[in-house]
Amino acid sequence: MGAHRSIPRWHRLPARLLTVAAAVLAWCLTVPAEAAFLGTSGNPANGLSVAAAWGTYPQATTAYGASHYYRNEQSASSSATVAATDSSGNGSNGTHNGRTDGALSWHSFSEGSGTSAYDNSGNHLTATAQGTTAWATGISGNAVDFTGNGYYKSTSPVDTTQSFTVTAWAYLTSSATGSPRTVVSQIGTDSSAYILKLVYNSGWRWYATMPRDDIDNPGNDETYVSATNGTPTNQWNHVALVYNDSANRLYLYVNGSGNTSNVAKSNEWNATGGMVVGGARWAGIGGVGASYLDTFAGRVDDVQTYQRALSASEIDSIYDNPGTAYAPFTAQRTGALGGSQSSTKAIAYAGTAGTYTPATQANPTTFSTELWFKATGGLGGGLAGFCNTQTGAGASVDRVVYLDSGGRISYVVNTTTLRSPSAYNDGAWHHLVATYTSTSMVLYVDGASVANTGSPAAPENITGYWRFGGTNLTGMSNRPARDYFVGTLDELAVYPGQLSAGAVTFHYGRRNT
């Protein structure tokens, strides 16, 4: 029997694509520095790729032959799971394991030290302490402790002209005096668009307030609703302010019990001066370097904001499960790509769930995983990996890339570990590629190799699924505080071959086309 001669792929192209293929090949041959090579299980010696001819980042991804490509463009959804649309052309839609209408900010105050409170929603709105603050035991883990002259401030998370929700746990100390005590507010130039506070009126009572204009001392020109029952000191209480713009109603929830106001706002204004935990701006007081009015005396924990009006049942769920994310993903975040691609979106991951591919794959021994990530703080988490289960811990995990608590990246295949010399938890977008063949294992960040070996261990023989955003990291060196990633992910891809250094560099350069 004669030797089998495989037919070159371009001969198998449909007739209507032959002209395009010929033009692409000619272009690559005239630009050899940008011609990319792929090593695949069927072509370990590397075969010529024409992907470099494509101008945009997504075009290059598909031309390089991605088997799975999830762009994370999904809209916010309250479904229990949400489809991750496959843009590779293979119809291999994945799944986001949870609803995608999550928080815009979530300050759990879990740090327990320092002056920074990181945003666990994955949206990177770090809050910074000013004045006198301390740490104490919270409703879940740690909490920030205010003595009456300190606060934490972040960038404004919500647009206050639209529907929004803010929730928090608060513990007022018995030493507090009769002045109002603010848990959280979002400030403008002279006033605050909302204030969630305690007011002393024959006992402490919760108030949700929305001044109608950003003016010096709005006085009675405000919408407010107060709790019907008093609030005792020296115990934790959950409180939520909900503004429903379409219904023009303001809601206040205390420990799951709701009170409503139907007083319409005369004007809407967007408070862009920042979110303040522990104080409010009023009558122009609270400028740069200044203290804020009605500062809190006691502990505050688990402050969350949403760009929608949460329902009573959703508020109850947050109240019943302190210290947990109500939704594991927040969709429609600003994406990693720029230039003509700058309108693309990404998804924020809150460190509790991930994204997975639909069908099992038997023991991939040549592969590349690729994504863009943005992280802040010290929680870290899994970025990509291969597991025998789509969700949960799984019994077998390998081919893992993760961000440790110090911001450095580890890439693990069986007993071989590569680690980046630099940290990348700086709040900027970074391009990550992890490639593997039996003779080459390379970790790339931002288009350049940062760690590699020519003698990697053989991958564990696992039949399973590719996962993004988290998997079981038990036993991994430099294991982060979270197995699931806290930050933003975009442009998730898997390739059945090893992307070359030239391909990675070229693809990274397609970011701003």
From TrEMBL:
The keyword Disulfide bond applies. Residues 80-105 are annotated as: Disordered. SMART domains: LamGL. The keyword rRNA-binding does not apply. Residues 162-313, 365-502 form the LamG-like jellyroll fold domain. Residues 80-97 have a biased composition (Low complexity). Keywords: Disulfide bond, Signal. Residues 1-35 form the signal peptide. Gene3D superfamilies: 2.60.120.200. InterPro entries: ConA-like_dom_sf, LamG-like, Laminin_G. It holds the Pfam family Laminin_G_3. Transmembrane segments: none annotated. This is LamG-like jellyroll fold domain-containing protein. The lineage of its organism: Bacteria, Bacillati, Actinomycetota, Actinomycetes, Micromonosporales.
